[in-house]
Structure formats: structure tokens, C-alpha cells
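YM 10:42: VWA domain-containing protein sequence, as discussed on the call
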Amino acid sequence: MDTKFQLASPYWLLALLVLPVVAWLRGRRAVSAMILPFSGAWRRPSFIGGTKLATTLVFLSAVAMILALARPQSVATERHSKSRGYDIILAVDLSGSMEAEDYFVNRKRSNRLQAVKPVLSAFINRRENDRIGLIAFAGRAYTAAPLTFDHKWLARQTERLQIGLIEDGTAIGDALAVATSRLLEGAKERAGEREGAFIVLLTDGENTAGMMEPMEGATLAKEAGIRVYTIAAGKNGYVPFPRRNERGERIGTTQQLLRVDTETLKKISDFTSGEFFRAEDSDTIDQAFQKIDESSTIEFEVRQYSTITELFPYPLYAAAAFALLGLVAGANKFREALA
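YM 10:58: structure's back
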């Protein structure tokens, strides 16, 4: 709930500009002598000291009255969202071929994984109503982050992905199986609260490892009603690849022949009613995730309720109190001056 303060009739505040002029005129003895009776008593030191207090109180009463006329209000706004988001698993390839340096980020040559990371983070930040999880795979698949609404934490987990964390290979079928399992677990936790679920599978190679074939993993997803969006990253053919010594230190760059199995990825997406994307550079991989955004976004209703509380009685009460005290102070000093 958000609370703010406002003035319903703020133009009344302009009247505050008149008060200093009135105070200045009130302080002129010549004016007082002309317009007030008992001018001799008025000019007595004892009376002048007393009327300063009365004048101040009346001045404060006028300020409070003007504030009351400006009608201060407290506005409490409460928003109710009826949205139901998706459960999403991002399955990211960490095989050795993701080290291929056929991408450019900010005009600098980058490997495939480093080029993908900012795109993943941007996608995560755009899906504020969705629970998103992260699966990393190479020779096997594992859960790098469970389904969560904490997108900042998830983005940090994405940044920590590194090639070499898992034994090398490309277990596409296992990645789909693990992703489907995580989504089914999430469906049990929040039955009826999710609009649906889908997997985004990003890989740059062919299935070379794992216990399950790609289409077997796709079958599990289809039977669970889960769509799979597949993204084929990188270029086919010879691409720049880092050359390392026995200690893993980079000693140069070589050309390596790599192949992306686009045919299998197309089959997976078609079979599960998803979509296939070819991403050979940073721009096309970003476009792929933006298209996934467009095709998997739900409209949701947000209702806003505002409660307005009138606060003018408080300055009004203060104005009355100051005025009463001013009259009492002025009357007492007037009687003393006449005595």
C-alpha cells in the first residue's frame, strides 16, 4: 500500500503571501493610533508587550485556517493484481563447444556462453510475474537454480555459470527430462496459480551424452503439457576456438569444426508446440528471447483502490485554539493597560 499527501485546494496557499503585509501594517504605531480607540493605553509598554503575544497567536490562527482551506488529504493507494504467470525453466548448454568465439559483444569477440549471459539476465528481468528456474547441462544435467520469483538472485546464478563445471558432452535428452521434472514439482506446489509452463533449451551442438535421447525427453515434456522453445546457438563450420596447454592456460586461438543439430531441435519444438530459433550472433539470440517473450506473455488485470482521508479538521482545530488564546491574551492585557 502506498500513502501520499496532497492538497485538494492548493491555491488557498497564496493567501499566505498576504499575512506578512498584514503583520507589517499591524506593527506600525501610526496606523494603530489612527484606527484604534484608547490609543494612549495602546502605546503603553505593558500593553505593547502583551499584544505581541496576542498578535502572534492570531497570526498562527490565520496560517492554520489557510491550511485548512487548502484541504490537506491523505491518499492511501492499494493495488490488487489478478495475474497468473508462467513457470519457466531455462536449460543452458555448458559443453566445451560453448567456448567457441564466434560472437561479438560490444564489438569485442566473445565466446558463446559469455554472449548468452546478458541476454538471459534481460529475459529474466522482463518476466516479473513468472517463476523461473535454471538447468545447466553438458555430459549430464543438474539444477543450478530451482523455480523462484527472486529474479535478482537467479540472474546472479546465471552469471556464475562456467564451462567445465560438468564433465563434457551434450545431454539434451537428460536436460529436457530434468527440466520437466522441476516444472511438474512446481505445478504441485502451486496448483491453479500458474498459467502454464515452458522450457527454453539453448544449445550449440549435437546430443552426445546422457541416458535419454532428445525425443524421449521431448515426449516427457509433451505428455506434461509443457512447450519447449529451442535455440540453436553458434555457427556451423570452422569457428575461432581458444587453444590451451596441458595446464588449461590459453596459449592462442585455433579454428575448430563445429556442427549444430538444428534438425533435432526443430523436431523437439514442433513436437511440443513450441518454436525453434536459429541464433548465429548476439543480435539474433536476443531477438529469439524477445520473440519468446511475445508468444508467451499473458495479459493481467490490476485493480487500484484509493482511500482519501480529509485532514483539514486538524489545522481547523488549531486555528480555533490559536484564535481563542489570542483573544484571551489580548483582552487580559487590554484590561491591565486601562487599569
